């Protein structure tokens, strides 16, 4: 069992989730049950999956949850694209969040490889 707060990837994923929440607050009220709730949900799934994997007792379980986090990151990437294309997010804001998001995905991929090698 690992402490998820010690992982830099968790910290960066948490920052991306906070950014998704902050930026979705300005979305139209008509999207309350649409992208306004779905984008932050996808974003928070990433650090929460990392945390859950760290709470499991085996490396295999950790890798499984890290892979789920990668899937959630792909889902977030789509919502960011959709928000930009619907003009809910400015292109510069989209690009900034997306760059941080891509860094998280790279870090997750590296961590998966590392944990699998440790087995």
Brief descriptors of the model:
119 residues, mainly alpha, de novo design (two linked rop proteins), 4 helices, 0% strand, elongated
Share in β-strands: under 5%
From the alpha carbons, calculate the radius of gyration and give it in angstroms.
15 Å
Oligomer: single chain
- Helix-strand makeup class: mainly alpha
**Number of spatially distinct domains:** 1
Following the backbone from N to C, one meets helices and strands in this order, namely HHHH
Query: How much helix, percentage-wise, in residues?
Result: over 70%
Under CATH, the homologous superfamily reads: 23S rRNA-intervening sequence
**CATH class bucket:** Mainly Alpha
Main β sheet profile? none
Model description:
The structure is a single chain. This protein has 119 residues and is mainly α. The chain has a single domain, classed as 23S rRNA-intervening sequence (de novo design (two linked rop proteins), Up-down Bundle). Helix content is 77%, strand content 0%. Helix 2 (35-54) packs antiparallel against helix 3 (59-85) and helix 3 (59-85) packs antiparallel against helix 4. The two termini are 14 Å apart.
SSE blueprint:
Blueprint (H helix, E strand, L loop, with lengths): L7 H17 L10 H20 L4 H27 L5 H28 L1
Summarize the structure.
The chain has helices at about 10-25, 35-55, 60-85, 90-119.
């Amino acid at each position: 069992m690992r402490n998820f707060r010690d992982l830099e990837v968790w910290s960066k994923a948490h920052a991306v989730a906070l950014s998704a929440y902050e930026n979705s607050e300005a979305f139209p009220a008509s999207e309350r049950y649409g992208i306004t709730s779905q984008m932050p949900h996808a974003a928070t799934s990433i650090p929460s999956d990392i945390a859950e994997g760290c709470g499991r007792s085996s490396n295999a379980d950790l890798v499984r949850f890290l892979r789920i986090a990668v899937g959630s990151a792909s889902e977030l990437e789509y919502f960011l694209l959709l928000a930009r294309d619907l003009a809910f997010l400015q292109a510069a804001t989209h690009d900034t969040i997306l760059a941080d998001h891509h860094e998280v995905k790279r870090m997750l991929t590296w961590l998966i490889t590392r944990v699998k090698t440790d087995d």
